[in-house]
Specification:
CATH class: Alpha Beta
Largest sheet: 8 strands, parallel, barrel
Number of helices: 11
Shape: globular
Strand order of the largest sheet: 2-3-4-5-6-7-8-9
Number of domains: 1
Number of strands: 9
Structural class: alpha/beta
Helix content: 25-40%
Length: about 325
Amino acid sequence: MLKKDGVSIGLGLWKIANDQCAETVYNAIKLGYRHLDSACDYGNEVEVGQGITRALTDGLCSQEELTITSKLWNTYHSPEHVKPALEKILTDLNLDYLDSFLIHFPIAQAFVPFEERYPPEWFYDPEADNPTMKLAQVPLADTWRAMEDLVHQGLVKRIGVCNYNSGLLHDLMSYATIKPAELQIESHPYLTQEPLIRLAKNYGMAVTAFSPFGALSYLELAMADADESVLAQEVITRAANKYNKTPAQIVLRWGLQRGCSVITKTTKTERLQENLDVFDFALADDEMAAISALNKNRRFNDPGKFCESAFNTFYPIYD
């Protein structure tokens, strides 16, 4: 079983190299993945689309069986840019519609034309002597209304947000005429985010957790240290031995039992399969509590840190 109680294991496409992406997507669908998490900013949506098209052509599944997510990048927040940004994504993915379209960050940046640079990434002018981010004065409410128009036009089935905090969620729910269907956030045993997850569920939103293993997603970016791996924690390894599972499978199972879908990233077939094999056991309540007790509010994907260190712009979105 790949999905139970409304939650699933999805394949995340962040940091998958272009020359591996199409094959990885195809192999994942062949193994049974039905949730694919993509984004303009990942720079590989053409290859993602190639993998999807090949899988559909070979009859591995129908498009209706897939849940395909992409995200609106920061530079396309102005209402007049939202639909063209989606249309570019649909062209790259070779699709007529998206299942889920999310605001990637609650950060509005100055528009960069597609023909000038795509994906535009974070710098406004990478060739400048001292390149920085250039922000735009676009209220999130204006962006959301443009997202709602996409639903009315049948281009997306559901809309939602990533990386929002509780204050932004309360504000969004006060003006949304089409309520957000999904909140996607970083969450793992070192960053449980329990109040935020509870709030989202109270609002009727599905929650998807990215970077479920914490530090492992960020070592190559020098945004985490090797000794920060949650997989070596005794409570994790003890459960792994008990259930004859890997530490990674224990962490994924913990995420699912919290009522969250979980996004994983790998290009290795054996890892793709391993990540799916987490629906045949359940952690006990005391094991769930012990893993949650590892929380230390350690956030790895934090614009308040990486925007300043990598993009010469101080721009925190979390307190």
